[in-house]
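Lecture 7, part B: from sequences to assemblies.

Below are the input chains for today's worked example.
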Amino acid sequence: MVYFFLFIWQLSFGQSREKGTLDTLKTNYLQEAIVTATRTERQLATLPLPAQIVAKKEIQAVNSLRLADILSEQTGLNIVQDHGQGIQVQGLSSDYVLILIDGVPLVGRTAGTFDLSRITVGNIKQIEIVKGASSSLYGSEAMGGVINIITEKPKEGVQGDFGYRGSSYNITDVNASVNTKKNKLGASFFVNRYSSDGYDLNKEDELKTQDPFYNYTLSAKGTYDVSENTQVNLSGRFFIENQQSIPTLELSGENEAREWNAHLQVNHKFNSKWKGYLDFYTTRYITNGYLDNTDGSRFSESDYNQFMIRPEIRIGYDVSKKQSIIGGVGWTKESLDRTFFSNTPVYNAPYIYAQYDANISEKLNVILGFRYDMHSEYNNQFSPKFAVRYAITDQIIVKGSVGYGYKAPDFRQLFLDFTNPTAGYTVIGYNLVQQRISELDSEGQITNVTIPLNTFGEAVSAENSINYNLGFRVQAFSNLTIDTNVFRNDINDLIDTKIIARKTNGQNVFSYLNVSKVYTQGVELNVAWKPNQQLRITGGYQLLFAKDKDAEKAFKNGEVFARDEITLNTFRLDESDYVGLYNRSRHMANGKVFYTIPKWKINMNIRGTYRSKYGINDTNGNRYLDSYDSQVKGYTIWDFAINKTLFKNYMVSLGADNVFDYTDSENINSLAGQIIYGKLNIHF
Amino acid sequence: MKNKLLILLAFVAMLSSCDSGDENTNLGGNSLTFEGSYSREFDVQGVTQRATYQINQTNINYDLTGGISTNYDTKKEYYSESENKWVGYRESNSTFYVIFFKNVTENQITLYKKEVASLEEGKNEPIPAANDTDNHGWNTYAKNLPISGKIENLYAPQEGGRGEPESGEFVKFDFKTGKVTTDDTNWDIAFRSTTIVVNGGESSGITDEPVRNGDAAAYISVGTMDDITTVDTALLVQDSASGLSIPTGSGNGWYNYTGAPDHLIVPIAGRILVFKTRDGKYGKIEILSYYKDGDTNSDFRYYTFNYEYQPIEGVVTF
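Predicted structure of the full complex, as structure tokens:
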């Protein structure tokens, strides 16, 4: 409450844009442009693929701070806490979702998870989400979906913004940005500081649930219009974070992360038919962490340094007004130097892709694309995709797509060489198995090898999937839109850890192998209703089944059992007892109400996000997630925000995230209790 | 096959009627059409008693174990298939027994036993009524009935572990007695922490493992205790330098380690450990808990398990 008088917000959006949007919602929706799905600007509504856009207006209205916050409120997107806040799309975990910033990938994952809380939403123009496999355009990781963060571009004139948000747990977020463009030259600068004292859900122990941290994001962009047909853009971003780390009473330390990106882009229009793009992108992600014992001696250190460089040339050719072709060649070089790697592996991966997009008739749109990735460390990948959209009537549109997706085995899966100092087990990356097992054997550390070493003679296969989507879009009335999509992902060669040998100390040696086949399937439904100028109501729902095919078979064959905790009696489980993969909720839903009172210059919103129960642990130890395992209870988070414009250029906001203070200290560490905040924004 | 058997039976019956005048010299008629070991278990003041009839052509051995124990042989004096009556002589205390059989099937037998003064009295004894409860009445005995039991809180401690060298004495179990033992030879399986070794095969190289001097072996089967009715002897393996017959490690053998946040050792439901004992008999075990009194909040390394033991030589079924 103290903060109430502190904050504000800029109003150029607040008023002018808001009003415009409210007046012409439908037209706006139709005009929303998305680049991620086809790598060319396409209207969202005409796209044959399941995609959505989160606009700046919504981000600002709900006062989001980090990417994880705003995405967790979107239909079918699930934020999962597992070594960071990862995103799950169509039931596929963060490992299989590509995160882009202005079309180029962000790197730096922990155990496969890309932590979305790394990304501030302060300078975002819109977030584009394409669901399902898009490896035909983006290659590895674009298996479950692609999230592309589109940042603001310099605009004519000089504008600046300053924002401050303060809240419970001393979570403080400060933004400042300047944006200018004059004639041919444009520039923008953005700085963000985000910090928190952390929080403690379990007061019984002396440890915090989340340790205090702070981070800075700096970004700058320069644009130069060489001529009417040629633009040069240069952008850079730097991120630094420092977090305390106190995992036990005996240990304390710090984790530091640093990340930078640099992206040079040259666009040239040769003539009305030919366009060319040149991208030169490089990024590095570094973390350094340590833990010290209470006497000050070093307990452990961990370092991580990933580097990527990627040049790409892309050509667009408009065959006619109705047909266009886009094609590109590029080369990715990646390296990773980290603790528990005996050397610094380098990936070299040239690639080529092409896409044909045709409006065969006014009603029928077809996209045909492929990509071919060569790779130094695993099998080459050919990723085709086909998508079609057909307008049955002006109000009813059907769209379908089939695509191939894959994820390259990551560095850890190929090159890790780790022995746990306390427990004594060893994990060896696939490519090192033959050499390291022989070494361990000659040192007398191996009792027996359970998976023959020649298994590792051939390169590991990339995890791959075939993705199917079939959707309908119905414009029921001028103010009611219903979007639905049925999806299925058949995933093969999933890489998992497996015991490959036993050690003389009684422990195991693990490696990563292509072991399982899983599928995810479900239905997504989005409804948007705008009964009048002031009110907009949206609702979303996802039904999801995510299962391991072998596990399904085991249940079917009666090979899975459970034991009564009290009587210790064993009983056989059947197919209906199989719950599926961990961390998947069968039902997820959200509802949002946005209400504007123009004469008071106030807009407000209430949002509810529900996820049904889900399993995070095989609590009864039968190695499957079944209906007798205790699961995390389903829950709903309610958020509320109210924003008022003052003196044209100021905006004050007040809100509460997690209004009803829902927490689950046992199972959900990432969910702080109720957060009350105030925000001030000044636009000049 | 069945027809042939019937003809044979009829023939035997005819023979027996011809021989009826001869009963004093011949042991009394017919040969038994059933042989083997038949047992039943019952409670006497809360203690399980097990009674076994080992039926052979020339004698029947009666064995009673549990709170009260006894064992004696009865030599066949007379058997009439038509009456399903058998009379025998117990030399050790000079008494005769008459035994009536009924409902004889492949898997079980129902019998009534009565002490009589002489062979003649036995021969003349009428078939008792079905509801006759004298002399313990009619009882049903199962063929080759395995011995079943439950061991609670078998404590199997260990020194070291979690990266430190593991050591300490194994705790041994003997199927025959159904008890923990410290005997160096009369044991079948032994426990230390989550590791289980058998009294068969070679040294696996584990510190402080017991000397193997028997012929035990093991394998892990999937099912409930009741599902595992026959030992698949082809699957049996012995301990060796290249590994234990019950593999160690989470998910490999009998248990699963749940990891954070609970860090429990959970016996995988539906895993039955099938054993050949040191002397070539068979047993099976279902581990129920690794925690004292089956309570996961309590101390660990306390095994509770159900077992079944087939005491009869050469029988591979339970």
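Note for the exam: The radius of gyration of chain B is 25 Å. Keep this in mind when comparing with the next example.
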